[in-house]
Amino acid sequence: LTAKQDRFCMKDTMEPAHLGSHVGQTASGIYTCACCNSTLFHSSKKIDTGSGYATFISPIEHGSVGYKHHEGSWLHHPLDTGIHCEYCGSHLGNVREDGPPPHGRRYMVNSACLKF
């Protein structure tokens, strides 16, 4: 892993908003985990919410992303639940329950934690 990938994938932190390389990405394709290459998201589920992160309405398949509630953490927004690659455990970003229908979620993912 690069130093940047280690910082955001292994240390449960978020990149500064609007600086990630995948934020404005519009090409069609598959996003995989930067650590283990597991398939995580498809570009057809990517949305622009203005959050400054690569944002998706759902993972590519059920069970590819795991969840971890940030209990009492001052480092995270109170509405955020941490998400990680279910295959290798690397931190991906956060999910909020305020996304568009039908799922109602928005997965905000660190660009450093993804490969396209």
TrEMBL record:
This is peptide-methionine (R)-S-oxide reductase. It catalyses: L-methionyl-[protein] + [thioredoxin]-disulfide + H2O = L-methionyl-(R)-S-oxide-[protein] + [thioredoxin]-dithiol. GO terms for cellular component: cytoplasm. The keyword Metal-binding does not apply. Its EC number is 1.8.4.12. InterPro entries: Met_Sox_Rdtase_MsrB, Met_Sox_Rdtase_MsrB_dom, Mss4-like_sf. One of its GO terms (molecular function) is peptide-methionine (R)-S-oxide reductase activity. GO terms for biological process: protein repair; response to oxidative stress. Residues 1-116 form the MsrB domain. Keywords: Oxidoreductase. Pfam families: SelR. The lineage of its organism: Eukaryota, Cryptophyceae, Pyrenomonadales, Geminigeraceae, Guillardia. The keyword Hydrolase does not apply. It comes from Guillardia theta (strain CCMP2712). It is an enzyme of class 1 (oxidoreductase). Belongs to the MsrB Met sulfoxide reductase family.
